[in-house]
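R.M. (postdoc): so does anyone remember the format we settled on? I'll just put the structure tokens first.
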């Protein structure tokens, strides 16, 4: 079940900023683009059985969601969008699928070379962020 089986709580900090962010951000909104331009967030991921919590913290904003894997829930994103979201583990990756106002976005979190790679995809545009574990 991905890294969360090994580590029940994982705190990560942004290592490399978003490749592709300038193409991706306009599709999610102006507020998201402005926040993302200056934010260097930490990410805390916890999993207790089937219950997942993802908390993203920066000096500007803290956003958090909690859900049961495989169950659709209403998420309020960091930029205020209300989405219908579902999270699942697929092929060792944590996949978060969001839908709102006829739009869709998929956020995939996966381990690569000991780092957490987060890929956000919307309309075939990909934004990538890389996090490393905080000791």
């Amino acid at each position: 079940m991905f890294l969360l089986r090994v580590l029940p709580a994982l705190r990560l900090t942004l290592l490399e900023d978003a490749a592709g962010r300038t193409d991706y951000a306009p599709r999610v909104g102006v507020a998201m683009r402005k926040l993302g331009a200056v934010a260097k967030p930490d990410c805390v991921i916890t999993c207790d059985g089937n219950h997942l919590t993802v908390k993203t913290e920066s000096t500007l904003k803290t956003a958090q969601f909690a859900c049961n894997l495989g169950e659709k829930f209403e998420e309020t994103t960091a930029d205020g969008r209300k989405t219908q979201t579902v999270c699942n583990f697929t092929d060792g990756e944590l996949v978060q699928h969001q839908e709102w106002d006829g739009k869709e976005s998929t956020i995939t979190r996966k381990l690569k070379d000991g780092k957490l790679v987060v890929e956000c995809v919307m309309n075939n545009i990909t934004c990538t962020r890389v996090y490393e574990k905080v000791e």
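R.M.: ...and that's the designed sequence above, right after the tokens. Also worth knowing: The longest helix spans residues 30-38. The chain has one domain: 3-133.
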